[in-house]
Design a protein that fits this description.
The chain has 131 residues and is of the alpha+beta class. It has 5 helices and 5 strands.
Length: 131
């Protein structure tokens, strides 16, 4: 995936290039591929048109959550059934689920006890989602 934003040097401080390559390989191996239908692909949402692909992929996958640090996406929240969350808000939500499912913070109990099913993660670069 040569055009991935994850190859940018700004991510070096978070994960090594090798780790990012392994992560993308693993994500790709478990990907759920979707074709963006024309009626969705023509819709315009964010102030930055380059971000439309993120919303299109999430909508096509019927994702419940889209996690982004991009203000052009975050300002759209909520967008119909799609909740657009910052990484912090997503982590807070996951922490709340962990507490609810186990009674203790930091451990996830039986995933079938979650209040809603796991949400696919949209990747507009490849038009795929991962659950």
């Amino acid at each position: 995936m040569p055009n991935s934003r994850l190859w940018k040097p700004k991510f070096d401080r978070y994960l090594s290039l090798e780790r990012r390559q392994r992560l993308l390989h693993d994500f790709n191996a478990s990907a759920f591929w979707v074709d963006i239908p024309r009626d969705i692909s023509v819709q315009k949402f964010p102030r930055d048109v380059r971000d439309d692909a993120f919303v299109h992929a999430a909508m096509t996958a019927k994702a419940l959550r889209l996690v982004s640090g991009d203000d052009d996406l975050l300002c759209l929240h909520p967008l119909a059934a799609l909740h657009i969350l910052s990484p912090r808000a997503a982590l807070d939500e996951l922490s709340a689920i962990q507490i609810t499912t186990t009674g203790r913070h930091g451990q996830i109990g039986n995933p079938e006890r979650l209040s809603y099913p796991p949400t696919p993660i949209a990747d507009p670069v490849k038009g795929i989602t991962r659950s």
